[in-house]
Amino acid sequence: MNSRILRLRGEREPGPFLDTLRDIVGPAHVLTDPATTRGYTTDWTGRWAGSAVAVVRPASTAEVSDVTAACFKALVPITAQGGNTGLVGGGIPESGSIVLSTRRLDRVEAVDPIGRTIAAGAGVTVAGADQAASVHGLRFGVDLASKTSATLGGIVATNAGGARMIRNGDTRSQLLGIEAVLADGFVLSRWTSLCKDNVGYDLPGLLTGSEGTLAVITRVLMKLSTPPADAHVFLAGVATIDAALRLYDRVVRSGLTVEAAELMTEDGIDLVCTHTGAKRPFDTHSPVLALFEVSAHRDTEAAVVEILSASEDLIDNAVMDPPPARRLWQLRESHTESIGRESSTPVVKLDVSIPLGSMTSFVRDLESSLAQHHPAVRAILFGHFVDGNIHVNLLDVAKDDVDSLTDGVFSLVADHEGSISAEHGIGRAKNSWVHLGRTPIDVHTMNRIKFALDPRRILNPGVLFPR
Ligand code: MLT
Ligand code: ZN
C-alpha cells in the first residue's frame, strides 16, 4: 500500500485533491456526503459495502481523462461504476478510492439501421440502448433482468451474458469499437464499424471483461440484431434437468431457432410466487421448469405445438404465450429479487457454468454435499442452462461459512470441468479462486498485462487479482 493512499484513508476530507476534482467536473458532481454516496459504495445484494473518499460524476470523456490523470498523479485508486448492478463486488470501492460513476455519459449518439450498430456513452442503460434500437425495428443483443439500471460500460467491463447469449453471443462478440481512458489519462479509441478489421491486438476484446482493472470505458460501438418475425415463448414442466436437455435437443433438431432457454426449479417458482404475487404456472408439480423462446420463418406456434405433442414422454405440463409473454418471462426475471427477499442473510451468488453432459451429476453432487455439510443452507438454482450456465444461489448462509461454502461449490465445479464464473465476472467475490479456472502462467500473463496498462495499480485494486 503506498503512502498517498494511506494518507487519504486517514483523512476525513482530503481537501486539495477533492478541489482538483471539483474544478474538473463541477462541485455538484463530487459527492462526499455518506448518505448520498452509500448508493455507490454498497451493492444492492447487501453483501458488498465499501467506502470512498468521493463519488465523482464526469459528463464527458475529457472529464474522465482529467479525473483519471489527477488520480494517477495523486496515486488515488479508481473504481469505475455503471449501474451498480454487478453481483461480485467489482463496482464496490475499497477505502481510499474514488468511485468514478459513468452514469452521466448517457447519450445515445447514433443508431445505424443499415450497418446495424449503436454508438453510445458508457452510461446508457441496456434498456435505453434497446429502446433506441427499437425505433429502427432493431434490438440490442444483450438482455438482462437488470436492464433498466445496467449500463453499456458495465456490461462491456464484465462481458455480461444474459438471456440472449445463446442467440447473439456474449457482450464481447457484439462489441465493435471502444473508447476508454487509460490509467494515466490518455484516451484510447478503437472505433470502427467494420466486422473485418484485422490490425494487431484485439484491444476492445481485451478491455471487455477486464472489470475496470485496465481502463475506464467511456463510449462503445456495438452490433444490433434483427428481432425474429415470429417468436413464441413456452414453459414446460419436466421431471429432471436431463429431461429439459433432451427437450432442448428436440427443439434444435426440429429446425426452430432458440432465442433463449432458461431453467428454473419448482422451489424457485414458489419463491417468486410468494414474493411477487405471481400465479403458479401449473396446478401440477414438476421439479424442473424450462422456459424457451423460439422462432421460425413462419408459423412458430404450430411448430411448438408439434414438438410439445411429440414430447409427452418428457413433459408433465406446458403453456405457451405469444410475445412478449411477460407473464412467463417475469417468473424467470423475478428470481434474483425474490431470492434476495427470502434469504435471512445476503445471498451467496455463485454463477458457474458446467458442460451440459455433466450438469445432472453436478447438481446431484452439489445437493448431496450441501445436505451433508450445510443442512441449514437453502439452494435455489436457475440459469440460462443450454449455454451451461447455472446460477447457484445459497440462502441463509452464516457469515463465517461463506468462504468454506464457496470453496466447496467451486471445487465441485472444477471437478466437473466447469467455470467458476460464467457471466458475472470475478470481482472481489471470486478472486481467491481464479487458480481453479486458469493456469499459473495464464494468471502470470494477466498480471503482466495489468502491470503494462496500470503500472501504479490505481484501477480497481482488489478486483480480479487478490490483494
Ligand atoms: C440473471 O440471470 O437473472 C442474472 O444473472 C442475475 C442473477 O444471477 O441473479
Ligand atoms: Zn444470468
Describe this structure in words.
With 467 residues, this protein is α+β, with helices and mostly antiparallel strands. The chain has four domains: 3-104, 2-Layer Sandwich (Uridine Diphospho-n-acetylenolpyruvylglucosamine Reductase, domain 2); 108-225, Uridine Diphospho-n-acetylenolpyruvylglucosamine Reductase, domain 3 (2-Layer Sandwich), CATH 3.30.465.10; 231-333, Alpha-Beta Plaits; 343-430, Alpha-Beta Plaits (2-Layer Sandwich), CATH 3.30.70. Helices cover 34% and strands 21% of the residues. The chain contains 16 helices and 17 strands. Helix 2 packs antiparallel against helix 4 (61-74), helix 10 packs across helix 13 (335-342) and helix 14 (359-373) runs antiparallel to helix 15. The longest helix is centred in the last third of the chain and has 15 residues, at 359-373. The chain starts with a helix and ends in a 14-residue tail after the last helix. Bound molecules: D-malate and zinc ion (ZN).
